[in-house]
Amino acid sequence: MDNSGDISFPADDFPANSSSLQHHFAKLKKQMSRQKADYESKITSLEQRNKELQLEIKDLLSKLRQQRKWYSLVEIKMRNAERAREDAEKRNEMLQREMEEFFDTFGELTNEVKKTERIIQSF
Predict the structure, then answer these.
(1) pLDDT tens digits for range 6-42
(2) How many distinct structural domains can be found in the chain?
(3) Is residue 9 part of a domain?
């Protein structure tokens, strides 16, 4: 059989290649360790930022609920104020009519009193 396709290492190159591979393997292991530390640091940082953002969202939602309550109260107060204004206008109109009726009646009474006084004076 022909083994010309097989790779062969000279006997004196093997220890040098083995040492070189071990050195290269150690460098790769160190690089992977640094990358792992970097990734873990980034993950920790992202998790912390996520917690901060979740707290901020919770706070903003609470403020939003408070603003909605405040807005509802303002709407209710505005409707109540509008109803009170309308009621006051109706009372003022009714009072105006009653005053006009009173003065009309009082004027008629005054005229009657004046007529009666003239009649009495004429005797």
Answers:
(1) 545 444 444 557 889 999 999 999 999 999 999 999 9
(2) 1
(3) no
For 53, residues 6+ apart whose C-beta sits below 8 A from its C-beta are none
Residue 78 CA: distances (Å) to CA of 68, 74, 86: 15, 6, 12
Range of the domain at 58: 15-92
Q: What is the rounded CA–CA span in Å between residue 48 and residue 112? A: 94
The residue whose two tokens read 């109260």 is 73
Q: Quick check: is 10 in a domain?
A: no
Residues 6+ apart with CB under 8 A from 17: 9
State residue 3 phi and psi, 5-degree precision: -105, 30
pTM value? 0.50
Report the C-alpha dihedral over residues 24, 29, 30, 31, rounded to 10 degrees.
90
